[in-house]
């Protein structure tokens, strides 16, 4: 039977100590000591994944280890920050060695890929609950924020949003009357279980893009966070949404719902001045990530001095400019199915 400290040392601490390079002091003391490079600031983010809310009970533990870190690295990507290290705290109902081996393998494979060190954490018994705090480094003058979008900016999205939501639909059999072939089902499921944090793109966009965030709760809902913080509106061309070939085989209504209201994509949504279009394309090419221009930031409804408490407006339209009446809402952790 694994004890708490044997579990930590065998599956996490020993591996972490072998790879500690950036932390002045890593696992083994009351606190880790970590500092960014001279002239840079720490970027810090925390995300919690709860069984039954963020993942299904029978999820592959290797995939869960990957995703637990991926959602945090995605936050660093949205700030244009370079990963430094992370802490891991989790509650586990029972310390099964096969589960821990697979989970830690998925976690460390992604950590090694992004040179991000485990520097501390905690564990206890309880319902499965995973919490990571991640640390990154970024120059303050190039950090990508949510409150810096300006009217006239282009709105961009990376990747092909909506695939993860389709993956959840496949797992839950949300569309029993509409069979999805095995290849597309596997593609959708991988998009859900193995999201790829756009760290390289975020770093390449630092100093190029104006405002950014990662899409975790659906593009329609998350874009509003930029609009609220920047006090602007947006006009979005729904026909410009980048749709994967697999998602394109679904009915158009489902394509739009998945791409705009689905969560768990962890793509970057960002704005940039129109004059920086070539720079955005160059950053995307450098990172090896597809980016698509889908709209424009607009002045707040009512102009300067408008009611600052009003919900920011997104004007949906098609490729011809005709308005579309869409009712969309991003994921809400307290009001989700």
TrEMBL record:
<feature type="binding site">
    <location>
        <position position="45"/>
    </location>
    <ligand>
        <name>Mg(2+) 4</name>
    </ligand>
</feature>
<keyword id="KW-0784">Thiamine biosynthesis</keyword>
<dbReference type="GO" id="GO:0000287">
    <property type="term" value="F:magnesium ion binding"/>
</dbReference>
<protein>
    <recommendedName>
        <fullName>Thiamine-monophosphate kinase</fullName>
        <ecNumber>2.7.4.16</ecNumber>
    </recommendedName>
</protein>
<feature type="binding site">
    <location>
        <position position="146"/>
    </location>
    <ligand>
        <name>ATP</name>
    </ligand>
</feature>
<keyword id="KW-0808">Transferase</keyword>
<comment type="function">
    <text>Catalyzes the ATP-dependent phosphorylation of thiamine-monophosphate (TMP) to form thiamine-pyrophosphate (TPP), the active form of vitamin B1.</text>
</comment>
<keyword id="KW-0547">Nucleotide-binding</keyword>
<keyword id="KW-0067">ATP-binding</keyword>
<dbReference type="GO" id="GO:0009030">
    <property type="term" value="F:thiamine-phosphate kinase activity"/>
</dbReference>
<feature type="domain" description="PurM-like C-terminal">
    <location>
        <begin position="190"/>
        <end position="302"/>
    </location>
</feature>
<comment type="similarity">
    <text>Belongs to the thiamine-monophosphate kinase family.</text>
</comment>
<keyword id="KW-0479">Metal-binding</keyword>
<dbReference type="InterPro" id="IPR010918">
    <property type="entry name" value="PurM-like_C_dom"/>
</dbReference>
<dbReference type="InterPro" id="IPR036676">
    <property type="entry name" value="PurM-like_C_sf"/>
</dbReference>
<dbReference type="GO" id="GO:0009228">
    <property type="term" value="P:thiamine biosynthetic process"/>
</dbReference>
<feature type="binding site">
    <location>
        <position position="331"/>
    </location>
    <ligand>
        <name>substrate</name>
    </ligand>
</feature>
<feature type="binding site">
    <location>
        <position position="214"/>
    </location>
    <ligand>
        <name>Mg(2+) 3</name>
    </ligand>
</feature>
<dbReference type="InterPro" id="IPR036921">
    <property type="entry name" value="PurM-like_N_sf"/>
</dbReference>
<feature type="binding site">
    <location>
        <position position="47"/>
    </location>
    <ligand>
        <name>Mg(2+) 2</name>
    </ligand>
</feature>
<dbReference type="InterPro" id="IPR006283">
    <property type="entry name" value="ThiL-like"/>
</dbReference>
<feature type="binding site">
    <location>
        <position position="47"/>
    </location>
    <ligand>
        <name>Mg(2+) 1</name>
    </ligand>
</feature>
<feature type="binding site">
    <location>
        <position position="30"/>
    </location>
    <ligand>
        <name>Mg(2+) 3</name>
    </ligand>
</feature>
<dbReference type="GO" id="GO:0005524">
    <property type="term" value="F:ATP binding"/>
</dbReference>
<keyword id="KW-0460">Magnesium</keyword>
<dbReference type="GO" id="GO:0009229">
    <property type="term" value="P:thiamine diphosphate biosynthetic process"/>
</dbReference>
<feature type="binding site">
    <location>
        <position position="30"/>
    </location>
    <ligand>
        <name>Mg(2+) 4</name>
    </ligand>
</feature>
<feature type="domain" description="PurM-like N-terminal">
    <location>
        <begin position="28"/>
        <end position="138"/>
    </location>
</feature>
<feature type="binding site">
    <location>
        <position position="217"/>
    </location>
    <ligand>
        <name>Mg(2+) 5</name>
    </ligand>
</feature>
<feature type="binding site">
    <location>
        <position position="54"/>
    </location>
    <ligand>
        <name>substrate</name>
    </ligand>
</feature>
<feature type="binding site">
    <location>
        <position position="75"/>
    </location>
    <ligand>
        <name>Mg(2+) 2</name>
    </ligand>
</feature>
<feature type="binding site">
    <location>
        <position position="264"/>
    </location>
    <ligand>
        <name>substrate</name>
    </ligand>
</feature>
<feature type="binding site">
    <location>
        <position position="122"/>
    </location>
    <ligand>
        <name>Mg(2+) 1</name>
    </ligand>
</feature>
<feature type="binding site">
    <location>
        <position position="46"/>
    </location>
    <ligand>
        <name>Mg(2+) 1</name>
    </ligand>
</feature>
<dbReference type="Pfam" id="PF00586">
    <property type="entry name" value="AIRS"/>
</dbReference>
<keyword id="KW-0418">Kinase</keyword>
<feature type="binding site">
    <location>
        <position position="75"/>
    </location>
    <ligand>
        <name>Mg(2+) 4</name>
    </ligand>
</feature>
<comment type="pathway">
    <text>Cofactor biosynthesis; thiamine diphosphate biosynthesis; thiamine diphosphate from thiamine phosphate: step 1/1.</text>
</comment>
<feature type="binding site">
    <location>
        <begin position="121"/>
        <end position="122"/>
    </location>
    <ligand>
        <name>ATP</name>
    </ligand>
</feature>
<dbReference type="Pfam" id="PF02769">
    <property type="entry name" value="AIRS_C"/>
</dbReference>
<dbReference type="InterPro" id="IPR016188">
    <property type="entry name" value="PurM-like_N"/>
</dbReference>
<feature type="binding site">
    <location>
        <position position="75"/>
    </location>
    <ligand>
        <name>Mg(2+) 3</name>
    </ligand>
</feature>
């Amino acid at each position: 039977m694994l004890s708490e400290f044997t579990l930590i040392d065998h599956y996490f601490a020993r591996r972490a100590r072998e790879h500690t390079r950036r932390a002045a002091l890593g696992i083994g003391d009351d606190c880790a000591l970590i500092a960014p490079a001279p002239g840079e600031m720490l970027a810090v983010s925390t995300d919690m994944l709860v069984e039954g809310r963020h993942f299904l009970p029978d999820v592959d533990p290797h995939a869960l280890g990957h995703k637990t870190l991926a959602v945090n690295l995605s936050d660093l990507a949205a700030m244009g920050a370079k990963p430094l290290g992370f802490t891991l705290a989790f509650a586990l109902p029972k310390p099964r060695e096969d589960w821990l081996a697979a989970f830690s393998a998925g976690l460390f494979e992604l950590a090694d890929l992004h040179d991000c060190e485990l520097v501390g954490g905690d564990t206890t018994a309880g319902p499965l609950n995973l919490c990571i705090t991640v640390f990154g480094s970024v120059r303050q003058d190039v950090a990508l924020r949510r409150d810096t979008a300006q009217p006239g900016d282009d709105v961009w999205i990376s990747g092909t949003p909506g695939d993860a939501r389709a993956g959840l639909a496949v797992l839950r059999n949300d569309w029993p009357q509409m069979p999805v072939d095995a290849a597309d089902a596997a593609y959708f499921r991988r998009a859900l279980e193995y999201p790829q944090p756009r760290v390289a793109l975020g770093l390449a966009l630092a100093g190029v893009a104006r405002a950014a965030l990662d899409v975790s709760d659906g593009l329609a809902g998350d874009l509003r966070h930029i609009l609220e913080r920047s006090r602007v509106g947006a006009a979005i061309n729904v026909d410009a949404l980048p749709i994967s070939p697999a998602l394109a085989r679904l009915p158009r209504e489902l394509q739009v719902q998945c791409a705009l209201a689905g969560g768990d994509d962890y793509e970057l949504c960002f704005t940039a001045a129109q004059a920086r279009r070539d720079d955005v394309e160059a950053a995307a090419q450098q990172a090896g990530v597809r980016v698509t221009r889908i709209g424009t930031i607009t002045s707040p409804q009512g102009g300067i001095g408008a009611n600052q408490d009003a919900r920011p407006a997104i004007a949906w339209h098609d490729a011809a400019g005709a308005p579309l009446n869409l009712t969309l809402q991003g994921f809400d952790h307290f009001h989700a199915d």
